[in-house]
Amino acid sequence: MIYLDNCATTKPRPEVVDMMVKMLTSDFGNPSSLHRMGMDAEKIREGARASLAKFIHANPKEIFFTSGGTESNNIAVQGFIEKNKRFKKIITTTIEHSSLRKLFLRYRDLGYEVVLLPVDPKGKVLISELKKEVNDNTAVVALAQVNSELGTIQDIKEIVKIVKEINPNTFVHVDGVQALCKIPVDVKELGCDSYAMSSHKVYGPKGTGALYIKNAVAIPSIVYGGGQEKDVRSGTENMPGIAGFKVAIDCELEDFEKEYAHAKNIKAYLLKKLEENLDRYQVNGEDGSPYITSVSIEGTRGEVILHYLEEFDIFISTASACNSNGTEKSAVLQGIGLPENLMEGTIRICICKDIDEKDIDEFIEKLIYSVKEVRGVMER
Fold first, then answer.
1. Is 322 an active-site residue?
2. Total-model pTM
3. How confident is the model at residue 203 (pLDDT cuts 50, 70, 90)?
4. Bridge partners of 284?
């Protein structure tokens, strides 16, 4: 099997699975309990908080555990909007993940002025438009550091600087789900007010995430209950998930530089092999994250290519970002102005630490076969 859909999810490390089994079978205490098992669970939770804080250069008190990136985005954006409720303008971009895009559109229905900033053909935010839109009425600006379809890396530090110069009271939230453990991240250098993270994108378990909130600023909760996570996210903590997340982050603290260099080499090799073997295609986005490559192939349909490759035990994704009934086009590809025929023929290749050149060679061989077969039918 060659798994090239690592933006959707990653295979948990064996060490992660071992830790989760231990948490489920023997160390299953609730960290809110006052007895020894509860205190042991609390130590594990706080150790995880410290590991994650170290990785992103934060203070452990600024890290809050959630169920994943979607919840982290919602907690931050809704919390900041409520905290800044005298301001009625919120800003994101045309190419955001649905957890931001749909949330912002919901606030439009509630009467907020919602701005979807345009991007250039490579997916970069148009800074000139940002400067025009931020004003004294802006409550929140939210965007991803790394785009999940294109791999484009936004200049968050510059964006934060511009926003704060215009309105120091505007909160800047960053969706870091595709950035964590994939590019260097220093939240203090970025200057953002919050940063969303997800465990299952970094060889950890699903159902676990985290939210960095600068200076642990108190924000109104959107989840009410027992007051866990300093009332930012009530509910008994997912201790197997948090413990697994810690193991994944600890591994990255040790292996990040090596894996990052490996990913850059593999992406360069992939691009070279595409250029040597494929015609009538284009690579979308800038040369951003080494883990993400978006390719549009003329005369094909991405979904059909996906199923051809699946027969060879090769797993990729399309960039269609379809909804459950499969009718919605990718907002990201529309946002960069990709023509309809290229949108239809777009695939996304997302590598991981385990992919090597031999895997890429086999992928390219089967891709070329699949493209030939699909074009043979579509271009009759």
1. yes
2. 0.95
3. very high
4. 294
